[in-house]
């Protein structure tokens, strides 16, 4: 973690090494690290909702919420948990013919399911513990209701853009020498993501299920609609666009 991974060539080599490590992990390790990642993102989301709902000005509330939400991603990077969105960049191993597409998709699906388990668990705990007052829960219900009604084309391109932003921040963190620098670049990039209002699959897992548990007029079918489209969009943004362009530069520079 102390090495400086600067530029597409070094970044690609680093991700290829990460891909090898993921492929060698046991199923239970992937599941547990994925569950933790879903929980970490959800913890950041709790703080986002609490701060956003506590201020009289929606703009200030959203800004303050965006400042604390990155805690989840920072915890994932430092604790080496497995998050679907950033892990989609391991597609570089497929482009480099180090592994097969089928194997990478299997790993990503395991991580995705584990992220869902972690997010649903924290959403359930949030609801049953009563830590959200009426105003905070109303905000969560409003967010969930909005998300399940986004038109499919808008939802797809919104989620593609989301993971371009998120993976850009993760790439920057891989280029940093020390942990403080990693935290700063991730904090800034994830703040941009939250302020952009784009759709992140694991964040949405928490947003939708806290709304569902809180009594939002949404169904499991509508939740599945949002999560399935956002999964595809996030995969395109991180697994094809960000990792694909970096890999292309890597090949051109060889």
Describe the protein in words:
- The chain is mainly α and 254 residues long.
- It has a single domain (7-249), classed as Glycerol uptake facilitator protein.
- It contains twelve helices and no strands.
- Helix 2 (27-54) crosses helix 7, helix 2 packs across helix 11 and helix 9 crosses helix 12.
- The longest helix has 34 residues, at 220-253.
- It is globular and about 55 Å long.
- The mean pLDDT is 92.
List the helices and strands and how they pair.
Blueprint (H helix, E strand, L loop, with lengths): L6 H17 L3 H28 L3 H11 L2 H9 L4 H4 L4 H4 L5 H29 L4 H14 L4 H23 L4 H18 L4 H13 L6 H34 L1
Helix pairs in contact: 1-12, 2-3, 2-4, 2-7, 2-8, 2-11, 3-10, 4-10, 7-11, 8-11, 9-10, 9-12, 11-12
Short description:
This protein is mostly helical.
Second-tier CATH architecture: Up-down Bundle
Shape: globular
Strand content: under 5%
Distance between the termini: 24 Å
CATH topology: Glycerol uptake facilitator protein
The number of distinct helices, counting runs of at least 4 residues, comes to 12
CATH superfamily: Glycerol uptake facilitator protein
Regions with pLDDT < 50 over 5+ consecutive residues?
none
Category from helices, strands and their pairing: mainly alpha
How is the biggest beta sheet arranged? Answer: none
| Total number of domains | 1
Mean pLDDT: 92
Q: What is the number of E strands?
A: 0
CATH structural class: Mainly Alpha
Radius of gyration: 18 Å
- N to C succession of SSEs: HHHHHHHHHHHH
Percent helix, as a range, is over 70%
């Amino acid at each position: 973690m102390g090495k400086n991974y600067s530029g597409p060539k070094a970044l690609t080599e680093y991700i290829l090494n990460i891909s090898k490590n993921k492929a060698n992990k046991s199923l239970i390790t992937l599941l547990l690290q994925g569950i933790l990642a879903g929980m970490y993102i959800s913890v950041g989301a709790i703080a986002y909702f609490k701060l956003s709902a506590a201020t009289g000005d929606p703009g200030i509330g959203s800004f303050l919420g965006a400042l604390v939400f990155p805690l989840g991603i920072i915890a994932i990077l430092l604790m080496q948990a497995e998050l679907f969105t950033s892990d989609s960049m391991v597609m570089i191993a497929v482009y480099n013919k180090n592994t097969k597409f089928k194997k990478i998709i299997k790993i990503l699906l395991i991580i995705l399911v584990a992220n869902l388990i972690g997010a649903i668990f924290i959403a359930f705990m949030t609801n049953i513990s009563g830590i959200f007052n009426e105003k905070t829960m109303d905000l969560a219900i409003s967010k969930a209701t909005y998300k399940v009604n986004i038109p499919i084309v808008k939802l797809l391109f919104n989620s593609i853009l989301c993971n371009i932003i998120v993976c850009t921040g993760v790439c920057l963190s891989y280029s940093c020498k020390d942990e403080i620098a990693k935290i700063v670049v991730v904090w800034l990039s994830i703040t941009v993501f939250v302020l952009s209002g784009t759709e992140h699959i694991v964040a949405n897992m928490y947003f939708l299920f806290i709304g569902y548990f809180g009594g939002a007029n949404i169904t499991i079918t509508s939740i599945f609609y949002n999560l399935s489209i956002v999964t595809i969009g996030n995969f395109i943004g991180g697994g094809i666009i960000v990792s694909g362009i970096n890999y292309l530069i890597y090949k051109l520079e060889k």
